[in-house]
Fold this protein.
Amino acid sequence: MRSALDTNAKVGALLRDLAAVQTSQQSKWGYKRAAAAILDLDEPLESLLQSDGSLRKIPHVGPSSLRVVHEVLQTGRSETVDRAVGGSTKAGEVARSRELRDNFLSSAQVAEVLRFEKRRGVQLKHYRGDLQMHSEYSDGRVSLEQIVEGCLARGYAYCAVTDHSYGLPIAHGVSMSNLEKQHAEIDALNRRYQARFHMLKGIEANILADGTLDMTAAELRTVDVVLAAPHSKLRVVHDQTARMLAAVSLPGVNILAHPRGRKFGTRPGISADWDQVFERAATLGVAVEIDGDPSRQDLDFELAQRALQAGCLFALDSDAHSIEELRYADTAMAHARLAGIPPARIVNCWALNKLRDWLGEAWRR
């Protein structure tokens, strides 16, 4: 479904391994920064090789990290990392982390997937708006007006601001009084940008352990878009199918956001019978999300293909907390293309009127 080897992803992961076994915090930080730089490159490492065998300069990647890059390019593995991990007391921790990296794409791989126009599925030209992002009203770093301008710069017709609900204080969840203020600001912006752009009022509600949400139905009715997302019990091994089935069955829920709650190399997320969850979501018309945050990439393309076969709708979102992070929607798009999802099944590709009709249907279940 994709290129046989994502070298940037492999090198980035190995540098994270090297960071994990360092005893010096400075060295740990340096390798993590190098890993992030490699993963964020928009071209494959192979293309940076020069005629003399050296690499073009990569910001934040020093000589020790470059040694790992060269080893991987020459042999497909790194003796430096193998030796460091093998001689460390953290070898078991590194092994567990490696199990939590399946189907994560580097930025270079994302660019390659989007560039290959003969691949079936959604294309950038089909995408009309991002339906998960965060503002300064919760844990985002930007104003609502900055979001509008950032979305317009990407060619969007609409977006949804989905700050965290008040039940998630760790993410500075927005109170109902502040949500009311946000809605007044959104109304003013929509008047100002009328005919150019529309901002939908949204919320990312927290899925509790029993599958209910941390907001009342009356509170949820004050917004246009309801995302239901898990933020707890993401490292436990027991099955949580009942929790996720309950969440997608709730009236008003439009999108099951970052369904597993996984994070690159650190947590597996929720264990569930996902085929059963996808079947329920498809029956009820709830979209499942492909979250493009590079550390999440959730759903990934393999699970998304199963959701497609179950008949699901999809939301492809950035989960941005800054204007720069709006580009994370490209990662979601790449997973959708790898899964072969057609634009008709992606709610972000719909005209605003059709999208709003679908959003309203969630209360008529």
Observations:
- The chain has a mean pLDDT of 95.
- DSSP finds 14 helices and seven strands in the chain.
- The longest helix spans residues 176-192.
- The longest strand covers residues 198-207.
